[in-house]
Amino acid sequence: MKRIALLIVSFLTIFTAQAIDLTGVKIYINPGHGGYDSNDRSVWTIPVPEVWKNPEGYWESKSNLVKGLALKEMLEAAGATVIISRTDNTSGIRDGEQFAGGGDRDLSEIAEEANANNVDHFLSIHSNSLNTTTNYLLLLYHGYNDQPTVAQSLPMAQSSGPIQINNPLTVWTSPTPMLRGDFTFYGDNLGLGVLRPLTVAGFLSEGSFHDYPPETHRLMNNDFCKLEAIRFFQHFHNYFKRDMPATGTIAGFVKSGNELVDILKQPKFTYRAGSDDQWLPLNEATVKLLNADGSQVLKTYTTDNWYNGIFAFYDLQPGNYKLSFSLTNYESKTVDVTVTASEIAYTKAFLKNINIIVPDYPAPEQGDGATALNQYDFVPDGNVENPTWLNSSSIRRILQRNGKLYVLTNDPKIIVANAETQKVIKELDLTGITGGSSILSDIAFSADDVLLACNKLTNAHVDAMFKIYKWESDNATPTVLLTTPKQANTTNAEIGETFTVAGAISNLYIYYTVKSGTNYRIAGLNYKNETQNVTDKYMGTDSNYPVSAWGEHVKFVISPSGYDHIIVDSDVMPATEYKFDWLATDGTALLKKGELSIAEIPVASYGNTFARYAGHVFMAAPICNTDATKAGIALFDITNGLDNAIKISDKYPEAGLGTTRAGYLASSIVVDNYDIKIGIWAQGQGAATYKTEIQPVANIYASELSINQANEFRFTLNENASSVFITIYKEGEALTSHDAGALAKGIQTIANPFGPIDYDAWSVTASSRPVAYPVKISDDTPIFQFYSGRAVAVDNNPESPFFGRVYVSESAGGLISEGTPVNPRTTQKGIYILDAALTDVTNQGADSYAGNIAWGANVNANYQYAPRGIATDASGKVYISDSSFGNSGIYIMDAAHPASDFSPLFGGTLDTSNGRVTSSGTFIHDPIEDIKIIGSGADTKLFTYNRPASPVAGGIYRYDIGTATLPWISAPSATIYDDMQNGNLLQNAYGQIASDAHGGWWMCQYRAGTGEASVPALIHATNGKLDYNCSSSLPSSYQGAMAVNTDGSMLAIGTKPGKVEVFDVVYDASNKPTLTAKCSIDWGEATDYLQNMAFDAADNLYLISNYNERLMVYSLPKSDNTYTTHASTKQSTGIVPHTNTSLSDCIYVSNPVKDEIIINVTEGINAEEYILYDIKGIAVKNGKIDATQTCVDAQTLTSGIYTLLVKTSEGIVNKRIIKQ
Q1: Is the whole-model pTM more than 0.85?
Q2: Who's near 78: CB < 8 A, 6+ residues apart?
Q3: What angle do CA 531, 537, 542 make, to 5 degrees?
Q4: Please, which pLDDT band fits residue 6 given cuts at 50, 70 and 90?
Q5: What integer pLDDT is reported at residue 711 of this predicted model?
């Protein structure tokens, strides 16, 4: 086996001698682990995927030794005395000699050697591992946090941490070094074996996480390891107060600027999304170190083949240098860099692959949850303008880019105007533009925002040059990008009536017209800027594209379909998309892909523009009369092609801009996060711009359904409804529906429209405007003001008579002052109630319902708050916890009589020193942070999240209260989750629990940026066993605020101050969850924390914070804002028996069901298929019916109400299914 020393280039003397160096300092270096054995750490890499077999792959012992040997050489050169525990990567080898006994040296032996030599500083070098996503710096000293067994160990770690964390070449998951005592970190009083025997000062460094794949590959680069050694070297000078070295270092990485690591197709190479690690590291890139003016190459470095892109230059005198970066097929780059004595100058180089085609319509930067809608409303974004430039010259093209208009006129001029005010900013410099019948014929922008223009040639001879110019900026003088005599295999043609481009300047595709006689051909050029190489192609023959069909003033624009698709448009033809096939033979016809064929858009309308929005492709299209008068703008969704365009807005302005024939038409579309702006320019009529108007709208649903004595249907809408349908059922079959039309938010009473029909169930289906992104639907009025709000809960049980009601616990009471409300109120300690429409349904005003309970005092230091958690049951009772030590318990409020006294749920003896309640020595409960209720009637079960007095760990207890006599004075019925059996993860019990609706539980605890696998912000357990740990992927959960929606498919958590993130959740067959980011809500300032969250049945999200003293309600994105609420069984009634025979009688379905749904079809009925919908109207199962009996597996369905739709040749049958 090769000795590791032979793999390392002999280190040069990096730092010159100083007046005061490290002479007299004795340092012990322990490169952790020995070589290639079971006590080592072997990790997958791309070049060496096998682990525990190949010494050429990644082993922690190897990278530790590279760091240690480099550090030893530097320290000795600086005068220090160095003892190192090993110098080879063969177990037990030092300086070529085998230690007695072989194998790794005993840890105690290493420590004793340091003690015996009375070293001034002990350093053990390691790297860490966890879950392939975590990467932070951890320095461990022996002892408890801030209480090391050797006092100087802590200041040593405090010196090293800030220096070592200064490594921008890695991606940290925590921005600050973690300095910990090993007793505290490992939860025992033993600590680390190598630190345990030490009597000298020192620490162990876990420099990074070697199982985080990008870091694994960086650690395979010796120079990356050496940079860590240099930072340790800086630490020793800093700690021992010695003069810093006089020379410096340049280091960095080379990565692709337009290729993600994903192109490697290595699923194990995971990375932190959005970080530098998403970009492809470039192997074998050349990095040259040049002098300040670039005239001399001083050193050259070639990056390795380990997918890290790392480079480094050492022993550099302070001053200015240049770095040049190059790699075949990538754009070269040169940058300036300044070296400072004793420091590392870091440089990150991103080179673009010139063969990559930059998209012309990239996905915009949008907030999470952006949703494309089927209807948009716009409002004017300023006044209708009629600027002079729009009417004074004949216009050839108008383009919008980065808030400015670029207008090409026949003069020619290129006018730059403000896109909002229409005011002229300047005219571009046309110096040096010559040649052709028109020196400027058309303009276009490259994907990287470079303005280009072409000339026009008439009767072009064989040597005539078609020219393309570019402007690097609005203030630049134009330069020639390229010239070409190519005229699509014709002679004496007209070239350049129009042109368009795709991609960036580095790899540009150019398309232009060549008119030969009375027909067009389409020429294409592919220009590579790095090599200035041009490839040409032409499509079409003299019979394919007659001028009579395309028009004399045809225009090209690049299609959103890709770089090889163009849209051809003019005032005599509809917009038509074609594919330009670069692999086809010259002269082949373009492939027609689609044609815009909408009656509202006559051929006289042209000038469409395009943008992407939430995965869709939108088109802003001018709309005018056939005579080009009354021009306006409308939005279309062309995701499925021009020939399938869908109009998704009205025309603006509705009456058009004017009655003068438009000499030129242009449009614009800009996506700004969630918002859309569109514009119309009509020469002779004017210009107007519009922006989307997104009104706050809730995810609609009907609540508190009931039938009164007059047989009237009564319900509350939480939003204005565009349509409401009341449907009645019999034995699961939908009998008929009543269209109640558009109804206003609030309580609605509908007279019975059905007449004498017998039914046994009914529902209300309400629809409203779609929700494009998270929108706040609450305001600053007094009803949303809470001085110290602690919890919010929504009654989501449709069997409850108070379904939809919102309950808020106020733990202190006081005058609201945050946010300087116009009408502040003073709240009281207790409970507040709103209905789903967010009104004061009980007319309580500012007075709370306190239930005549002596609520405990709030003590922030140990999270004592009262009242605290809230839950509701199927009967409408409200359960409220008091987490204080002095009144620990749960109290029950009758929602029908909230002003009455609350009753205690628990009895027993309270220990006011810790809040624990017992009965004759039997444990009942500890202070309760959160509560949930599942089931109804005799099956009602209470679940509590306790903060035990000792040890500090949480758990979930179940109390079967359905048949119990209250107050409850016995032990919990069951322990649902025992945290001590799962690693003692819940060490901050300030948080929430939530059922996942599948039998498992979510638990969230307060973490402020320090969440990790040992103390995570969020966990999930099924059957009491942990099956999800967020580790450091969610490092924060401020105040432990978390909510899960009714079917477990969404989870919200307060990941940052003032911010909530919402995730979609899916569960595998074992109920293990996977989270995917859905949307985020920026609800407050960087100092604002949440206390609690809750979803309602329609997935509106309720947030309560005592920092901004508000209850906030947000609707989440929903393109189809429709919800069906089924009335409770208590509110379903009939009038006259329904005896008519119908198709429904020929379809019999088992009901209720447990494991399967059996569908029986009467002979002679041709049943075709079935679809099963859940209570929200979401299809959960479907299949074919090809027998008289069909069985549908129902084991995986959650309990509740479903609708089974059976399609037959005679019609459709609906059956109501109850899953037990």
Answers
A1: no
A2: 15, 17, 18, 21, 22, 23, 233, 237, 242, 245
A3: 155
A4: very low
A5: 83
